[in-house]
Amino acid sequence: MNINNGTDISGINHLKQSISNILTTPIGSRVMRRDYGSNLFNKIDQPINGELIAEIYLDIVESLFTWEPRFELEQVAVNGIEKGKITIDVEGSFLSNGEKITLENIEITQ
């Protein structure tokens, strides 16, 4: 179901929505699925350095590997880290047909 208008979605559109949802959902925030989501929220407002960037990449890889088996992650780019916000791009392939997927400017905010 499309989170914006309630219509049915499937295929690549559903996959894109799922990836965005996984990355923007804090672990522990879902009542019946406490381990669903990502740890990216814990990275907001931390000192910006190479270690933080590496942790962001790791969190993205772990979350998508765990929660989205239809997707093969190929590239992650951290576009910006500002007060209260991390912006990322994600690229990969839809495993059912090999189609390339790019999600740009996913915002993780407090």
Low-confidence stretches: none
Summed over residues and divided by their number, the pLDDT gives a mean of 92
Task: Tell me the strand percentage band.
Answer: 25-35%
Principal-axes shape call: globular
- As a percent range, the share of helical residues equals 25-40%
The computed structural class is alpha+beta
Radius of gyration: 14 Å
Q: How many beta-strand segments?
A: 3
Structural overview:
It is a single chain. It is built from two helices and three strands. By secondary structure, the chain is α+β, with helices and mostly antiparallel strands. A three-stranded antiparallel β-sheet has the order 1-2-3, with helices on one face. Strand 1 and strand 2 form a beta hairpin. The radius of gyration is 14 Å and the shape is globular. The two termini are 25 Å apart. The relative contact order is 0.18. The mean pLDDT is 92.
Task: Furnish the topology, listing elements before pairings.
Blueprint lengths: L10 H14 L25 H18 L3 E12 L2 E10 L5 E10 L1
Antiparallel strand pairs: 1-2, 2-3
Give a quick rundown of the structure.
The protein is of the alpha+beta class and 110 residues long.
List keywords for this structure.
single chain, 110 residues, alpha+beta, 3-stranded antiparallel β-sheet, 3 strands, 29% helix, 29% strand, globular
